[in-house]
Write a structure and sequence with these properties.
Structural class: mainly alpha
Largest sheet: none
Radius of gyration: 30 Å
Number of helices: 12
Strand content: under 5%
CATH topology of the largest domain: Serine Threonine Protein Phosphatase 5, Tetratricopeptide repeat
Helix content: over 70%
Order of helices and strands: HHHHHHHHHHHH
Distance between the termini: 128 Å
Number of domains: 3
CATH superfamily of the largest domain: Tetratricopeptide repeat domain
Amino acid sequence: MRLFVCGLLFVALPWSSCVSSKKSLKEQKSSYLESVKLNYDAGIEALKKEDYDKAIGYFQFVRSKYPFSQYASLSDLKIADAKFAQKKWLDAAASYQVFIRLHPRHEEVAYATYRVGVSYFHAIPSDFFLLPKVTSRDQSFTKEALSAIERFIVQFPASPYIEDALDKQKLLFSYLAQHNEFIAAYYARRGRYLAAVDRYLLVEELYPETNESAGALYKAAGILEDDLKNTEEAIGLYTKIVQEKLSSIYAAKAQAQLDRLLKHRSVEE
């Protein structure tokens, strides 16, 4: 009789545990679901509902409990997506990089590489309500974003994200060109004219396709003529603008300056 009772207890206890577990899940308490697929799906559902911390919790559970499951790699990616949605840009970039490092042959590596660049892109401080302008401040995030986006462009030229990446690349070139112009103007205000010219010319050397390049050449020519009294080099820069930057707003201005200087030179001869 005693053995029979013990047997009943032995059978009843697991059943009672299952009932308790099901009840806990049904009430959506803090305990995690038991299977990897259910946990992953629960994380996706939380992500859709913008409950990002809860989603990250599910995905981290999948990673740690089922590290060799296909859902583990996807969970790494979704953790990064959740941080991106939270606008935790540097955390998101780091998480995407973790995914790339751990799963270099995964089909979503192109997407993750793209998102690294976009995360750094969004990490660049906004000009809104901020002084001085963002292009006058440290450009670490701009350079990180450009490096990541250029890596994506080289590695995945057929990606559906390539057009957006190219647009962001142009904007980042513009930011860096403006930053160099800011430094050049700083040198010019302090009478360091050669340094100012060199910095303006660096804009043309590094970012020739930007709208800023023609303006940088024009300003360098002005310093060469007015402050350094080097008319010949100024003529060379004005000529370069007229010949190579026809669509720029500085083309007509450069032509006017070029005509004036050439006329003055012919009179002197």
